[in-house]
Amino acid sequence: MILLTGFKRWSDIPENPTEQLVRELCEGDVMGRILPVSFSRAGSIIKNLIEKYEPDAILNLGLAPGRAAIRVERIAINLIDTIIPDNDDVKPVDELIDADGPLAYMATIPTKRIINAIRSAGIPAFLSYSAGTYLCNYVMYRSLRTVDKLGLEAVSGFIHVPYSSEIASKVKKPVPSLSMSTLRKAIVIALEVIRKVISSYQS
Ligand code: PCA
Description:
This protein is of the alpha/beta class. The protein has a single domain (2-202), classed as CATH 3.40.630.20. 38% of the residues lie in helices and 22% in strands. It has helices at residues 17-25, 39-53, 111-120, 135-150, 165-168, 180-202, and strands spanning 2-7, 30-35, 57-63, 70-73, 75-77, 104-106, 125-128, 155-161, 163-164, 177-178. Helix 3 (111-120) crosses helix 6. The longest helix has 23 residues, at 180-202. The radius of gyration is 16 Å and the shape is globular.
């Protein structure tokens, strides 16, 4: 089973496209969950889901406003450094995510294979070496940390998507975007690549 997560909206963004993506893609072997943009709640939700369901793979999705392409994150760092408060109005600065955890975790999903497959479908996708220091990096780190602590074989990683054009049309300034159907296609491709990895280590 693949655990696919997205996020609710936060701050002044009108909608989070990852919410719709997760709703549309959770069927068959994909279990979808929408996470709150909250440090105190999102971390325990992701930890409990992984402990309870022991998924074969975890793919976390988030919106990167202002980015023009799909970004597959390579690394999650053990740091929270917030400029915008989360949805509980909490704004941690210079805090470790886990005082006992390593400085960073590398994504264990096949990042380059995913990017190549998405690009082959004519969709712009790039490797990213920073998921930021907000909720997305936090959830990526907490997912990898939980898998590590439990000693699971699961692969885990994070993909940032741009605004969908549908949501960008509601933003009051010009922002880069891709259509919702393009975003959906990219994530479907990423899930296909992840499925192949899972089946190769299970056989
Ligand atoms: N993007 C934010 C948090 C929620 C989301 O979708 C981030 O990049 O941290």
